[in-house]
Specification:
Blueprint: H1 7-13, H2 33-43, H3 57-68, H4 73-100, H5 102-114, H6 127-143, H7 146-155
Length: about 160
């Protein structure tokens, strides 16, 4: 069967938040994958939805965070991703410092933050949560905390 372009499927796959709403300042931070995470956090998985391609941990964290932000999922997602990023950076710094010293750890952290892809650590994508889980995994391996390793491993799959 030859491939055909499906404009409706493309439009649905690159959802906007809020669905059908007018653009606002907060909607600028809620496009592409973030819109899917927000939709999942508010209405869950729906049959035949393109959002079903996304894992549930980040939307569940956003849903839990909306309790603290008065039902504002974009604010919850922004706060959560930045908190996870800060925690991940601190864990990265400490892990490298234990092995290579504080000066190398500082330089490694600066290089990581200067990398253009580090931009995604400050937007409500799932990268910051994944980074914390990876750091938890390596901390667990180093400290022989096998439950930490198991939790981080099971959350990343």
């Amino acid at each position: 069967m030859p491939w055909t372009f499906n404009a409706a499927q493309l439009r649905d796959a690159y959802a906007n938040w809020p669905p059908g709403g007018t653009p606002t300042l907060s909607s600028c931070f809620a496009t592409w994958d973030v819109a899917h995470y927000l939709c999942l956090s508010q209405s869950g998985y729906q049959v035949d939805s393109p959002s079903c391609a996304f894992y549930p941990l980040w939307p569940a964290a956003i849903r839990a965070g909306t309790v603290l932000t008065g039902g504002r999922p974009v604010l919850a997602a922004m706060l959560l991703c930045n908190a996870c990023s800060l925690l991940g950076f601190w864990m990265f710094y400490r892990l490298v410092a234990r092995h290579c010293g504080a000066e190398i750890s500082r330089d490694a952290l600066i290089l990581m933050l200067a990398f253009p892809g580090a931009l995604f650590f400050s937007f409500p994508y799932s990268e910051s949560l994944f980074f914390v889980l990876v750091m938890l995994f390596f901390w667990g391996l180093e400290l022989a905390r096998w439950r930490w390793v198991a939790v981080a491993d099971s959350c990343c799959h």
